Amino acid sequence: MSLNISLKQNLDQRQHALLASEFDKKKKSKLVTFFLWFFLSIFGAHRFYLGNIGLGVAMLLLGWLTLGIWPFIDGIVCLVSTVEKVNDEIEREIIAEIA
Fold first, then answer.
1. Helices 13-26 and 83-98, interaxial angle, to 10°?
2. Engineered SS bond to 78: which of 8, 56, 65, 82, CB 3.0-4.6 Å?
3. For 8-40, how does the pLDDT look when each residue is reduced to its tens digit (9 = 90+)?
4. What per-residue confidence (pLDDT) applies to 1?
5. Dihedral over alpha carbons 43, 45, 47, 49 (to 10 degrees)
6. Which pLDDT does position 29 carry in this prediction?
7. C-beta of residue 37 within 8 angstroms of C-beta of residue 45
8. Is the pLDDT of residue 2 over 80?
9. In sequence order, what are the residues at sequence separation of 6 or more whose Cβ sits closer than 8 angstroms to the Cβ of residue 31?
10. Secondary structure of the chain in the HEC alphabet?
11. What are the backbone dihedrals phi and psi of residue 12, each rounded to the nearest 5 degrees, phi first?
């Protein structure tokens, strides 16, 4: 997060507006993540949505073997920290494209 703040300081007003516009289009929603986790966690849908294809496939193939414990715990982790990390990375990529 602090890295993104320092990178944003080098942008002008037009670039800030472009960053905000692009970020609003690409950011991942905690609400969508929650609903995907709540209804489709055993299939790893929330991981596919967040771009973690490898973990999504692993959860799709092995999540049922843990009787739903792995998807349950993973959903909580996603909602607490992973969505913010993914959004920070998206913002960093947009800043790199703009600058």
1. 140
2. 82
3. 888 899 999 999 999 999 999 999 999 999 999
4. 59
5. 160
6. 96
7. yes
8. no
9. none
10. CHHHHHHHCCCCHHHHHHHHHHHHHHCCCHHHHHHHHHHHHHHCHHHHHCCCHHHHHHHHHHHHHHCCHHHHHHHHHHHHHHHHHHHHHHHHHHHHHHC
11. -85, 180
Task: Tell me the pTM.
Answer: 0.89
Q: What is the pLDDT of residues 43-63, one digit of tens each?
A: 999 999 999 999 999 999 998
C-beta contacts of 49-58 below 8 A and 24+ residues apart? 50/78, 50/82, 50/83, 50/86, 51/86, 52/82
What is the rounded CA–CA span in Å between residue 38 and residue 97?
Answer: 34
Q: How is residue 52 written in tokens?
A: 């973690």
